[in-house]
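Model the whole thing, not chain by chain.
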Amino acid sequence: MQEIKREILINKAKDLLADGTVDRVLGWKAGEFDYDVTPAVFNSADEIEGDFVWNGFCGANFSKYLVKETLKGDGKVLVFLKPCDTYSFNQLLTEHRFDREKVYAVGVPCNGMVDVNKIKEETDSVVSIDFDGGNTVVHTLYDGDLSLPTEKLLSERCVNCKSKKHVAYDELLGEDGEVCDSGRFDEVARLEKMTPDERFEFWQNELSRCIRCNACRDVCPACTCEKCVFDNPESPVENKAPANSFEEKMFHIIRAFHVVGRCTDCGECSRVCPQHIPLHLLNRKFIKDIDELYGEYQAGSVLGNRAPIVDYKLDDAEPSEAVERGDENA
Amino acid sequence: MRKISLDKLNQLFSKIAETQTLYMPVDTKTGARYEKWEEGKELSDALNTVRSAKDFFFPQTENLMDFKMEGKNIEIIDTRNEAEDFVIFGVRACDVKSFEILDRVFLADPADSYYENRRNHGTIVSMACTRPVETCFCQTFDIDAASPEGDVVCHKTDDALYLEAKSDKGEALLNSLNDVTEDTDGSAVDEQVKTVHERMSRLPLASLSADAFGADKTKEFFDRPEWAELSQSCLGCGTCTFVCPTCQCYDIKDFNTGHGVKRFRCWDSCMYSNFTKMSAGQPRLTQVERFRQRFMHKLVYYPTNNDGLFSCVGCGRCLSKCPIQMNIVKVMKKLGGKSND
């Protein structure tokens, strides 16, 4: 399903290892069933030849791994970045979270990634998967081989892709794309139109499933605090499980506030949530509000950009405007 | 063995619910979960619930006790209120086995009275699997998905539900249902068990073996260099531990209410950086050690302390839920889970 073939990526990786540009490669490693791809560091051409994959299941955003990876050794690490990943990459650099000199970034065009949960809505078992043109062929245990249009299986963040353009790279494989005109705020607009009670019920229902595994926070490229307030025994909000439904909401809402202006809308939070909570909608609400109150702003699009929330301009929105907007929505 | 046709299932459920609280897996748009049965709720056919059945005996959060302070007096208030009997209907073989694993921890002397209390009040009605999937590997741990354990064991065919009591509790429950069920022989069940066994033998993980692991293998596996690679992209989140039916670590914390203390217990995860944090810090300094702990516990430490019993039941939840798709199957294969072929 991806235009760029695996061979092009692994040849690039092997070349850069061979000429000493990098001494290791951050890439996607094959699993048991084609869809269970794991982020991994490859140290040799043999490892890459054996296990490196590039298919419709390479959703993991590697940008955050660079924070720890660049602290290891003196050599450079090669990282493959999809267009959306480059926004997180830029944002982390803007926040001085890793050393740019320790990274060689190769941009990879992306046609969207498949959400295996959408496949599992069609069949209960997935033994292996092939991509054939615009179709995803699923080999199952009880339903034979299913050929499903890949377009229908894309994850939400890819259906509403914000950009096929890379905003950071040392080298680009294939053609670069454009910023997309996506419908990513449509669902937020729908929620805004609800009455406060309806909206409260919507979030109550979604967040009540939270098991506080912290996967959303731990995968989030905007969450790179050395010690999260929720893990700090010295902090009054540290807790490992919510004692009541208020705490469930508090965790997610505080987290959403904390990443305002820094969240690039990469969608990793919703991808990893074991309970399928649409966490990205909280972040998108903030992004939409920033766009409307301060002018369009995309975190990570330009290196070194200051988010409107941490910047001051004379014509900034007054707090009263937010109150008025709240009244309109009430 | 007793039998009831599927179109009369509702009668069965309402009969049980007359005397006990009945829980069962129901479908939701985000997967199956256990809910209290009431008129109109239908039993899910999903292979497994998103969260395991351990919640019934070991809830994610519980208020252990309260302390009320008045002057120099401290009054201890028992906050327990679970006194009613309940039935968990439709538990799969893997989750049923997890209860034995949890029992060995919580019921060992001195027994955890909170867990014990709930265990005594609960009756387990298990449900044999018919369509095990690619993430299933219960047979690696000698669990038979087609013939689960439980107080009552159920088999669901195309037109009927077959029920067989396996304990005194189960006998009592089945006897109370005699009005809505009828006597039958087990031939339809035998046929289905055969089919499911054949299906299990064809599962992608059918040949996964745990023989390399087990009691007293700590030295063999503790310092293996592969742990670094296996754990390298672990996020340190608690997903695997929280969806796992056998993970049993918890933390206890006191909250100051201003005029007393509320003591809570909640699930904890060995994957967390603040797990078992004590005055000297957390004994496992990096994610490699935390990651190793979880799998060594399942495959070596627990068996060492429990007559060779592994503390994984092969339910496959971690296979489908880990954000980075690292799991016990990959660990076992990398470290020596040899093929039976």
